[in-house]
Amino acid sequence: MSTARLQEVLICFGKQKQTDIATANTVGQMLRLRKLNAQLANPKLNTENDADEYGKGHEFATQSFQTSWDAGSTLEKYLSAEIAAWAMAFSLGKVVKSGTAPDLTYTCTPLFPANGDAAELPYFSFVEQIRPGAGVVLDRMAVGCAIEGWTISIGSGPGRANSKINVEFVGSGKMTEPSAIVVPAATLEKLLPSASLALSINGVNYVSSKNIVSLESSWKNNILLDAGFYPGSGFQTAGDATSGAIRGRLEFGKRQGTLKFVARFENGSTELTKLKSQTTGTAVISLAYDVSNSLELTWHKVSFATVEIGETDGLVTVAVECLPMYDATNGIVSAVAKCGVDSIGQ
Amino acid sequence: MINPVKVWLRPPHGQGEPEEVEATPAVLVPRLIAGWSQCPPPAKKDKQEVKPDVDS
């Protein structure tokens, strides 16, 4: 028996969407990338017991019941063209693929049920393996996962850690063990470094003025987890009511987008003026590896919600929180992600 | 001159005929927000060969 190091863990997940929440991705639909965090997508079995029930003569539990399953985790990664395309496609939900491999472009926008779109996000399967096969330590697949949200963080400094993305996902609870998936070869990721940033917010180019210090942008779907357990949503083992319920749908709730940044504040800086006048404009965040691998995230209408003067490394800076708003023509946010991985979100 | 990349979109609620549009954010984003979705190109209708009736 030999111990296993967590760095052995292999992860892969569906680059193509599942046909429905209960039908797992197949081997050819998987994308294997690395991650930075140790957190695993541990399934959680929720149980109840009969301790509070009357008619048994005492207050202690005599039975335990498997009631429901949860699944989910967070992927912490250096921001790359591949993870950016995948996260945008699966978190926003609407995707148009154009171009031909390896010069593919994915234009992604949020779903709007009022205009005929689904309220369910695209689903994917998530596989974790440690030494699959005869000496297996871990081999499982969470089926029917959806992205709860992501946060992109861009900072100052020379290292890769200055351009990161965290992707949180939740699952239906359905697990397949062993996964029966042969993890594909790892995709060589094209990193989108902080130094490639182009940034224009509310009429100001913060890169050409050399004033941007850091920024953070996020999207959260606030998925209606409890509503996934509707009457008839199903069980971990089909037809076995004792195996615990699983979710039959993952619908987004009140979605939220955020954008905040820190910039140097100097003579002529307009943030306070724009706060007072509630000026609106677009915010365009662009990061690139090359012309074929990039991410352009556009918040189509933002105003400044808070503006605070402070300091960073002894220099006067301004911390701004933007309010992303819905633009009648372009909606709230769109992402144009370019990479060489085919069929993302298809 | 390079031909622009185009994609096919179908209208909201599946009502109406698909349209081929330029795959630029300026064209795509407003349509996607309005409910258009990507779809495969419509099948080309074969030209039916018309044979004159031949009276023997």
Describe the protein's architecture and organization.
The complex is a heterodimer of chains A (346) and B (56). Helices cover 5% and strands 44% of the residues of chain A. Chain A is mainly β and 346 residues long. In chain A, the strands form 2 sheets. Chain A has a 16-stranded antiparallel sheet that branches. Chain A has a two-stranded antiparallel ribbon with strand order 3-4. The radius of gyration of chain A is 23 Å and the shape is globular. Chain B has a domain at 6-38. Chain B is built from 1 helix and 3 strands. Chain B has a 3-stranded antiparallel sheet, covered by helices on one side. Chain B starts with 5 loop residues before the first strand and ends in an 18-residue tail after the last strand. The mean pLDDT of chain B is 85. Chains A and B meet through strand 6 and strand 7 of A and strand 1, helix 1 and strand 3 of B.
Q: How would you classify the quaternary structure?
A: heterodimer
Instruction: Show unreliable segments of chain A.
Output: none
- Overall domain count of chain A: 1
Count of individual helical segments of chain A? 2
- Helix fraction of chain B by DSSP (H/I, runs of at least 4): 10-25%
Radius of gyration of chain B: 18 Å
SSE string of chain B, helices as H and strands as E: EEHE
Helix content class of chain A: under 10%
Q: Biggest β-sheet of chain A: count, sense, barrel?
A: 16 strands, antiparallel
* N/C terminus separation of chain A: 42 Å
